[in-house]
Design goal:
The protein is an alpha+beta fold and 142 residues long. It is globular. Helix content is 15%, strand content 33%. The strands form 4 sheets. It has a 4-stranded antiparallel sheet, with no helix packed on it. A 3-stranded antiparallel sheet has the order 9-10-11, with helices on one face. Strands 1-2 form a two-stranded antiparallel ribbon.
């Protein structure tokens, strides 16, 4: 199935999402992966509300990346940038059961400030964003 017919609507949705996000960011907020993983309370058998614990570090510092929860509970982290001119080299996956990040193959198009949507098939559609610096890209990949 080709996604080409869907690209104009996907790009418009991505642009709208980005505009809403930027408009909602009155203050900058930097949160590391270690700060957002909830602490699991084995006595209760569920996540403790408001409790955080450190976990393994990502393989690269990332800003303006995407994080998508997959059907199996793992989290796919894609793209982002490490400096203003340097897009992150690829993607990695976080496994909550091992509390570890594992690198994935390099993206076809390095990007940041993109969208990532989990499709009904379980695949993740990565669309648009910017290549290094401020060069917009219309590339999409699964």
């Amino acid at each position: 199935m080709s996604i080409a017919p869907l690209l104009p609507r996907l790009l418009a949705a991505a642009a709208t999402s980005l505009a809403l996000f930027v408009a909602s960011c009155a203050d900058e907020l930097a949160v590391t992966a270690a700060e957002i993983v909830p602490k699991h309370d084995t006595r209760q058998g569920e996540t403790s509300a408001g409790s955080l614990t450190a976990t393994a570090a990502m393989s690269a510092v990332r800003m303006a990346h995407s994080a998508s929860t997959l059907r199996d509970g793992r989290v796919l982290i894609v793209g982002g940038f490490t400096t203003e001119e340097s897009a992150a080299q690829g993607a990695e996956i976080y496994a909550p059961d091992t509390e570890r990040f594992s690198p994935l193959p390099r993206l076809n198009t390095l990007r940041h400030s993109h969208t990532a949507s989990v499709l009904p098939s379980g695949k993740v559609l990565i669309v648009g964003g910017f290549a290094a610096g401020t060069s917009p890209t219309v590339a999409a990949e699964l």
